[in-house]
Design a protein that fits this description.
Bound molecules: S-adenosylmethionine
Strand content: 15-25%
Helix content: 25-40%
Distance between the termini: 41 Å
Radius of gyration: 20 Å
CATH architecture: 3-Layer(aba) Sandwich
Mean pLDDT: 88
Structural class: alpha/beta
Largest sheet: 7 strands, mixed
Number of domains: 1
Strand order of the largest sheet: 4-3-2-5-6-9-7
Number of strands: 9
Length: about 280
């Protein structure tokens, strides 16, 4: 999830813990070693992975932050970066990179197989890739009607209306997030020519998780950067009275510290470009 806006309450710290775990998983999967100099962080966002890599590299190490065009255009004053899509790293020379990292980026790309081919091209022989992706199709398949991890509740009717706002999002926006799973990630890595391909998959269904967020905090959050915030979806879906009913119910749960139910699937993948072409 992505938090927008300045609000931060206690439960948002769980989001930070999750992000730290994803970052550490990617960086540990990358196995950064003394001989590694150049890390390419594709779809760097605010630098969660890239800055983490800098901390782990030696004094000669450098990280190339690759921003997507649309992200770059909203980041005036940002440090120098390469721009491009995951599937088009044209500014990066062949075999010039020791490690490619990426987190929650392929999920937005329509050209995931091409992205793997580009990662392979820019890596030196023996170079590694380490990535993390959420497998959103899993949640859609198992818990299509849940939204805030509340399970069955007296506000099911309101949740259904808010969910419909997201269902109405253009197919072009949502398709890349839903049209793949962990087996595809492995297949694309193998097809691109990688060896030593390993994937760690974790699936959770209705697992008790941190308490529900109060409604004001929740409204600043979007399920991902391409979708409206929950606040925007609530305004679009509900009348004033309905919004009040939802707020009252959610805030009572938050005050009681009621746990949420987490349904999520995630995949970490790591692989190596062979030292020799077969
Ligand atoms: C959820 S954020 C993750 C950011 C960062 N990797 C991190 O770990 O915090 C998704 C990022 O993917 C980038 N992105 C989306 N589509 C992309 C594409 N086709 N190629 C490269 N980056 C892309 C966006 O600009 C955004 O920064």
């Amino acid at each position: 999830m992505t938090q927008r806006g300045p609000h931060e309450r206690g439960t948002v710290s769980q989001l930070r813990l999750d992000l730290a775990a994803f970052r550490d998983g990617v960086l540990e999967g990358a196995g950064l070693a003394a001989g590694d100099v150049v890390v390419l962080d594709v779809g760097c966002g605010t630098g969660l992975i890239g800055f983490g890599a800098l901390d782990r590299l030696g004094p000669d190490g450098r990280v190339i932050f690759v921003m997507s065009h649309w992200m770059c255009s909203t980041s005036a004053g940002a440090p120098p970066v390469a721009t491009g899509g995951a599937a088009d790293l044209a500014g990066i020379a062949d075999a010039s990179v020791d490690v490619v990292t990426t987190r929650s980026v392929l999920i937005y790309s329509d050209r995931k197989a091409s992205a793997f081919a580009e990662f392979f091209r820019v890596l030196r022989p023996g170079g590694r890739i380490s990535l993390f992706e959420p497998i959103n199709g899993f949640v859609e398949q198992l818990r299509p009607d849940d939204l805030f991890g509340m399970g069955d509740s007296p506000v099911n009717d309101l949740i259904a209306k808010v969910r419909d706002v997201y269902r109405g999002t253009t197919e072009e926006t949502t398709r890349p997030m839903m049209d793949f799973d962990e087996r595809d990630l492995v297949g694309w890595a193998v097809t691109a020519g990688f060896e030593a391909v390993e994937l760690d998959y974790r699936a959770q269904v209705d697992v008790p998780a941190d308490p529900i967020w109060d409604s004001e905090t929740l409204k600043c959050v979007a399920p991902n950067p391409r979708l409206p915030t929950y606040g925007e979806a609530i305004v679009a879906a509900l009348t004033d009275d309905e919004r009040e009913r939802l707020d009252t119910y959610m805030n009572a749960l938050a005050a009681a510290g009621t746990p949420t139910r987490r349904t999520m699937a995630t995949a970490f993948l790591r692989a190596r470009r062979p030292h020799w072409h077969r």
